[in-house]
Amino acid sequence: MPKLLLVIIALVFSIAPAMTAEVDAAEKRIAVMWEGKSGMTKRVHSGFLQKMKEIAPGVEVTSKREIDGMQEAERVFREFETKMNGIVFLRSSGAEFLAKANPRIPCFVGGCNNPQDLGAIKNLNAPEGNITGVTYFIPYPKRFQIIKSLFPNTKSVCLLLQKGHPATSIEQDGTRRECERLKLKYNEVVAENSKELIEGARQFQGKVDLFLISSTALVMDNTVGLVGVANSSKTPLFSFAEGRAKLGAVAELAADDEKLGGMLAESVTDVVVKGKPISQVPVKMDPDPKIIINQSIMQLMGLKFPDEIMQKAELAK
C-alpha cells in the first residue's frame, strides 16, 4: 500500500473520534433553571456558561431564570424533562425538589447546601440515582478551624438564620455540633423577616463574642443592617456566605461560586456528552474556599489576624 495512502488512513482514524464527539455534543441539550432570586445562583450560572463554552461549545444550553414559585418550577421541570438530555436545577430549593422528583433524565444540583442533608443524594462520592452536581457546602470543622485562628478567645457565638429556608436546619445542626465539640456556647436567631432578624441580633449585643452570617437569603440580604448591630457593640461578624465581607463583615469563608459553576459544567459534560455514569461523578466541593477579610473593619475593632491567614486571604474590595 502506498505510503501516502497509509498516512491518509491514519489521519482519518485519528480525526474520527473527535468529529464524533463534536457531533454528539452538538446534538445534546441542557436546561438550567432556578426558582426565585439569588445573587449566588447568578454567579454559579455565569461560571457554568463560561466553562461550557470552553469545553462543550456544541451543547445547546437553555436557561430559565428566577421562576416564580415552586409550582411553576415543577411545570417547567417536567416540560424540560421531555425535551432535554439533562437538567441543572440550582439552589437548595432545587435540590429539595429533585429529592422527591424521581427524575427520568440526568439532573444536577448547584448553588445549594449539602445535597445529602437536603435529601437529594445519599452518597456524595458515588451518587446512587440520577442526580449529581456541586455544592457550596464547607465541612464545619474547616469553618471553625478558621474561626478559631481568627478569633482565638471566642467562647460564645450567635448564628443568624432565616425561618423556613432549606439551609437553616443544616446550618443549625452543623454549627451546634461543632460548638459542642469545641465547648463554645451556641446561640441563634431564627427570623421570618428583616425586623425580627435585626431585633433578634440586638438582643445578643455584648452577650456573645461572634455573630455568624448563615447562607440563608434573609440574612445575606440584611448584612448591612447586621453590620450596624455588630459594630455598635464591637462584636465581629463572620460570614459563611460569599460577598458579605465587602458589605462590612470582618471576614468570610466561602466557596467560589463561579469556580463551582465551572466544576458543574465539567460534571454535566462528563455525564451528558461523554456518557459517564452518574455513580462515577461525585458531588464536588470547592477544595480551597476563599478567606476574605475586611481590613478596615478589622482595624476598627482593634483586631489583628495571624500573618499566615493574612498572607492567604483576599482583602474585601
From TrEMBL:
Alphabetical UniProt keywords: Signal
Record-linked Pfam families: ABC_sub_bind
Gene3D superfamilies cross-referenced by the UniProt entry: 3.40.50.2300
Protein name: ABC transporter substrate-binding protein
Signal peptide start-end: 1-20
PANTHER family linked: ABC TRANSPORTER, SUBSTRATE-BINDING LIPOPROTEIN, ABC TRANSPORTER, SUBSTRATE-BINDING LIPOPROTEIN-RELATED
Organism in which the protein naturally occurs: Desulfomonile tiedjei
